[in-house]
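Take the subject:
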Amino acid sequence: MLTFVGLGLWDERSITVEGQAALRDADDVFAEFYTSRLMGTTVESLEAHHGVDIEVRDRAGVEQEPDPILDAAEAGEVAFLTAGDTMISTTHVDLRLRAHDRGIETRVIHGTTAEAAAASLTGLQNYRFGKATTLPFPYAHGADTVPGSVCDTLDDNRERGLHTLVYLDIKRERDEFMTADTAAELLADGYEDCLAVAVCRAGSPDPVVAADRLSALSDRAFGDPLHLLVVPGDLHHVEADALRELAGAPAELAEPV
């Protein structure tokens, strides 16, 4: 059995009760933290809290060389861990399909996601979000401008009045995490200095949610990662109230449509 377990957003306690039970019942535990990580804990703390040994795999060790995971799942109970939810944003459908090809039973135990947290913390309605996008570091795509794919997503969502969730780049090999102020600066010129919302350390005891013009957000320091940026579309009156009250949005920017 191969059980995919989402660890949630922050630390060793963010896992669901069902996920914790699966983790403790596992014969072998694998994890990947190359696309995201729990900023409020370490692998050692995870191991100590749950009473397990965790083998952390890099991208190649999951996507190109998955046999150790699959061999263990063929012989016994395996838990495969990621931050957030293992099938949302950080998708491991390929690993699940490889297991099915070998006749290995699988299941998924979900963890809360950054997408859900962004809607919950900002007060923006989840069903009014359009397609999400990821903003890379400029050096990662070889240009100083925002990639066309990011602009296309933002433009399409704004034309339809939908909110856009912008994931911010993570470079695990450099231990580098894009911050909300950097993202706001990159987007400010091309998007008429529009309203945006920084969502920082979602799932932690002290999340920060701040709404303002992109240029204003670019001048602020938001502290430790992980950060997200939301570019709202048309606002329902409840959403406008929420951005003013929960995120400090200037009244003139948070007008319902």
The first helix runs from residue 17 to 25. The domain at 2-109 is CATH 3.40.1010.10 (Cobalt-precorrin-4 Transmethylase; domain 1).
